[in-house]
Design brief:
One of its GO terms (cellular component) is SCF ubiquitin ligase complex. This protein has 314 residues and is α/β, with parallel strands linked by helices. The protein is built from eight helices and 14 strands. The chain has helices at residues 29-47, 69-78, 109-133, 148-154, 176-184, 251-258, 264-271, 293-300; strands at residues 9-11, 25-27, 55-59, 87-91, 97-99, 139-144, 162-167, 191-194, 207-210, 216-218, 227-231, 237-239, 277-278, 281-282. Helix 2 (69-78) packs parallel to helix 3 and helix 3 packs parallel to helix 4. It is globular.
Length: 314
């Protein structure tokens, strides 16, 4: 049947490595061609019916100059209706099935940087199209490069209530004002999951976060992410984990760094008046007025300040 509203989901993650739960699998050339044929047939099935999608899930390396997944997705979006699209899950850094000869044996730093640039340039091209064709997006999950252009594109989606941004590349840092500006610009944001890997060169940098609508914040998979200010009046649940990266510092350097960082407890008291849960711990009614043992134990696992850190490592 060709009624567009009968075809609501496009899920390119249904076959292959996704079923095994693995991040990526090298397969024979024949197996890869068979899977690629399924991808094209599935896309044709939806475009021939002018599908009006609510959900789009896909994982393709948009930097792949041989298979040209960017062109494939752009053509696919041209053939369907996206005006009602509400949910997008897009891993633009990885094709889960690749032929065994796809990856080169080695590459210089310059070649790796060029490949990463190709990836996020292609992602931005695709994302620009979605800003025009899918204004009702309310749930987004994808790797994010935190460039000014990508952030600007993301702020077009004013209906977003659930946002999950995973790290793109370990050497790609995040500017504090960029992070603050993004959350401030999404007026309906309720749930935010951030996976940020702060580069060692930015050790000591801390980040403000501001949102009037945010109710759930999970940064537990981040590394090196330390907050300087929290202005989250609607926040009910916070998940944060102090991940030690094994950076050995002498006492003087360590204290100099930590002196720049605010205590998470102080930030919570001043900026999260409706907070109820910290990690798996339900806060007692008097948590803002006075601390207690259970809260202190959670802060020892979550806060980088001198009071709550007892290791030479960062």
């Amino acid at each position: 049947m060709r009624t567009p509203r009968l075809w609501r989901v496009a899920d390119f993650m249904r076959l292959g490595a996704f079923q095994s739960g693995m991040d990526g699998v090298l397969v024979s050339f024949l197996e890869f061609e068979r899977w690629k044929e399924w991808v094209y047939q599935y896309a044709f099935h939806l475009t021939s019916r002018s599908a009006s999608l609510l959900v789009l899930r896909a994982s393709f390396d948009l930097g792949d100059q041989k298979t040209k997944w960017t062109d494939f997705l752009l053509q696919f979006l041209e053939g369907i209706h996206c005006s009602e699209l509400q949910e997008l899950e897009l891993n633009w850094t990885l094709t889960h099935l690749e032929p065994v000869d796809f990856y080169p044996s080695s590459g210089t730093v310059a070649q790796i940087c060029l490949a990463k640039t190709d990836q996020y340039n292609s992602f931005q091209t695709l994302f620009e199209k979605l800003t025009r064709s899918a204004p009702k997006l309310s749930k987004i999950k994808l790797p994010f490069d935190w460039s000014e252009h990508s952030v600007s594109l993301l702020t077009h989606f004013h209906q977003v209530h659930t946002l999950e941004l995973n790290y793109f590349w370990v050497f790609k840092g995040v500017r504090p004002e960029t992070m603050k500006g993004l959350t401030k610009s999404l007026p309906n944001l309720k749930t935010l999951i951030l996976q940020v890997l702060v580069p060692v060169k930015d050790l000591g940098v801390s980040y403000p976060l501001e949102s009037k609508s945010l109710e759930y914040l999970d940064v537990s998979q981040s590394r090196g992410l330390v907050f300087s200010c929290l202005d989250l009046p609607s926040l009910k649940e916070l998940k944060v984990k102090k991940t030690i990266r094994g950076i050995i510092l002498n006492r003087r350097t360590k204290l100099a760094l930590q002196s720049r960082w605010c205590c998470l407890y102080d930030l919570m008291k001043s900026g999260t008046p409706n907070l109820q849960m910290l990690n798996a711990h339900r806060l007692l009614p008097h948590w803002r007025e006075r601390g207690y043992t259970g809260l202190s134990e959670v802060l020892m696992q979550s806060c980088f300040c001198t009071q709550h850190t007892d290791t030479w490592l960062l």
